[in-house]
Amino acid sequence: MAIDYTVIVVYLLGMLAMGWWGMRRAKSKSEFLVAGRRLGPAMYSGTMAAIVLGGASTIGGVGLGYQYGLSGAWMVFTIGLGLLALSVFFSARIARLKVYTVSEMLDLRYGGRAGVISGVVMWAYTLMLAVTSTIAYATIFDVLFDMNRTVAIILGGSIVVAYSTLGGMWSITLTDMVQFVVKTVGVLLLLLPIAVVKAGGFSEMKDQLPTSYFDPLGIGGETIFTYVLIYTFGMLIGQDIWQRVFTARSDRTAKWGGTVAGSYCLAYALAGAVIGTAAKVLYPKLGSPDDAFATIVKDELPVGVRGLVLAAALAAVMSTSSGALIACATVANNDIWSRLRGKVTGGERDEVAGNRAFILIMGVGVIGTAIALNNVVEALTVAYNLLVGGLLVPILGGLLWKRGTVHGALASVIVGGLAVIGLMAGYGILANEPVYYGLLASLAAYVAVSLATPATDEAVLTAWRERLAGRGAPELVSEPVLAPQ
């Protein structure tokens, strides 16, 4: 295992080195939070694919393949569909807004007053997303070093917090590009063909497994529909995803670079399901489907290759964890703390220090929460239920429906969020009903209250249309632009 350990250690040291390099470059708020809005197509595509394909997509995707066969690809497939929809239909307009957070977009569209409440919901989502990614370190380091769960979480989480705090989005972008390459080589080019060969090829896999394993809809129509609601729509509105859109050099980069990343996700989804199906042939009686990835890597791959593939799993977790962490800190500082204490008067350099401090504080909180929690699936479900149930309608409504008002948006966030929480308490966290009914309640509240309240001031809508068209937007936006009430 010495060679495998060396590969992992070199990889981790490289992540820290890039954090140090990023610190030298992140001299302004724009550089720190959105990489100066300067990413070209190649780097944008790689980093976008890296953040959406995390531990759940890699370890969990293989686990679903082990449990359901090729239809286990649907979870990651719907993530790719969401990224494609965002890129084709919305990303160009989002990039032209030149904001830092989703809540700033809501303030621009509705004329203010929606920021703090929507910020709290988005903060809860990004926090839980960061926590679930951090918990996944325990699985990987247990395979690598037979390490205690708490120590593994602290080690992996501390490395991510360190490079994210040092260089912000520049560090995260650089590390994500490395992580994208490592995942591509480790999972697609090495683990996938080796797993299929070890399982005897597709003909042997078909002979050994039930036909349901090769049914594209074998996982069930209701499950696929729920994945679409949670993950496809979640990709459209998450702060972690939007913050990457804000890094694009142009709206064209955001559109076509994101389309490439979404297409990559579809291929990654199928690869994970095939690897899991091969693992079912090789190890038909594993204790848990989520053990499939670690087991096939540990037992079937040669020395050196094993280290690279485990580094790929680590890369998947780190990319999502760092993206969720900077999103969580950005929302906490810019949408909640800054608004509660009043307008920020400091300059760009002062704001870099403030955002850096918030990443450190949020990072410590994420590590502590990850140590306290055990169930990754439940935490992730809570995160996406809150996001979709509370924020999908006011965000898409703001982009698509002129008659939507700030009162309708606030009602939608509050009613949808409370409905999801109450329904999770009643039906159970993993039930499908909370997101179904919560989304319907949010939509009903948005439409009813918007129609019952005065239309948004025309001056606000004119300013909004100007920003969507890329006109009238400041080079750097430190504060949300609030229209007169």
From TrEMBL:
| Subcellular compartments | Membrane
The record's listing under InterPro entries reads: Na/Glc_symporter_sf, Na/solute_symporter, Na/solute_symporter_CS, Sodium:Solute_Symporter
Q: Which UniProt keywords apply?
A: Cell membrane, Membrane, Transmembrane, Transmembrane helix, Transport
Record keywords: Transport included? Answer: yes
Membrane-protein topology: Multi-pass membrane protein
Q: What's the superkingdom here?
A: Bacteria
- Its primary localisation, in coarse terms, equals membrane
Give the residue spans that cross the bilayer. Answer: 6-23, 44-66, 72-95, 116-140, 152-173, 180-197, 217-238, 259-283, 303-332, 353-373, 379-401, 408-429, 435-455
- What's a Pfam family in this record? SSF
Tell me which CDD domains the record gives.
SLC5sbd_u3 (cd11479)
Q: Does the keyword Cytoplasm apply?
A: no
PANTHER family hit by this protein: SODIUM-SOLUTE SYMPORTER-RELATED, SODIUM/PROLINE SYMPORTER-RELATED
- Protein name according to UniProt: Sodium:solute symporter
- Supply the source organism for this entry: Streptomyces justiciae
